[in-house]
């Protein structure tokens, strides 16, 4: 504990994910006073056809904006 | 909020997912009185070898039925 | 399958939840062609001090609006 | 998106949670270049009798340490 | 890793949860060859009015059976 | 119910997953007295660049050990 699960868009670079995991772990260490080793983080990538908002799949919302 | 996460079998068509996301969002709007923009939906696809029921991976349960 | 998990604000009435569960199940039956019995739905309630957006706990965002 | 779900021990103060949510949101803004408004965070509290590690409920692991 | 999250009905005794956590951890050690310390397990309790199946909240399904 | 979600490293063989799903289901039957048919299990595979611990992506932690 704590265990963090993140739902995000795919396509983040290794460098972006590396930096995010470092910063989130630091946030727990600073705010909760836990050891870095106690923080586990999972990243879930959702394709544009596998998530939606406001009743639209993201692939369709994108198409609407571009069209 | 609300945020909806759905565990499902893979292979649903874009049209099926489009319709599902629309209908679930409508359900929140009608039943909870929230705005469509507040509803986010994630679809997780699980291969037949990555989920099970009754002690059997689905890939084996399928084989049993077909066999 | 499918299994649906919903993160929501607390305080929804039994009638609201009853209607939502019915409508979401119907959405799967209509859009995916699955049987109603195959649809399981979980509702998770998050207090205003246990979720946040835009860097603010909801309890603080509310206070800001009201203040 | 992104949506963050955190499994943690209960008993964190409002101030601790406020600081954590702020810092995690900042992490996404800095590392991923997203807007703060796009980041939603959920905190799940697990009592000592509702989580375990190494085969022991935490309530028992604590007792073992103290005993 | 692995991290296990369990959605269950409330009301399980401490003894039942203790036994379950032990057995599930053993399952990972035996089947995956991981160390017990690497296995973390979370138990989520869902009230009868916060989960449903086949379009019915469990509280209503129960009432239907009893009625 | 119960529904079990497992976050794990990829690369487990079908035989390992088959055995795990069987043993975890047995754990519920023995400890909770539920029927095997009521237990559903989902396996989520996380690549080494999609999970981290102690502030490091696993891909980097591995490199550090090997280097």
Describe what this molecule looks like in 3D.
The structure is a homohexamer of 67-residue chains. With 67 residues, chain A is of the alpha+beta class. In chain A, strand 1, helix 1 and strand 2 form a beta-alpha-beta unit. Chain A has a single domain, classed as Macrophage Migration Inhibitory Factor (2-Layer Sandwich). Helix content of chain A is 42%, strand content 25%. The N and C termini of chain A lie far apart (45 Å). In chain A, the strands form two sheets. In chain A, strands 1-2 form a two-stranded parallel ribbon. Chain A has a two-stranded antiparallel sheet with strand order 3-4. Chains in contact: A-B, A-D, A-E, A-F, B-C, B-D, B-F, C-D, C-E, C-F, D-E, E-F. The interface between C and D is medium-sized, with 14 and 17 residues. Chains A, B, C, D, E, F: Belongs to the 4-oxalocrotonate tautomerase family. Chains A, B, C, D, E, F: GO terms for molecular function: isomerase activity. Chains A, B, C, D, E, F: InterPro entries: 4-OT-like_dom (IPR004370), Tautomerase/MIF_sf (IPR014347). Chains A, B, C, D, E, F: Keywords: Isomerase. Chains A, B, C, D, E, F: Pfam families: Tautomerase (PF01361).
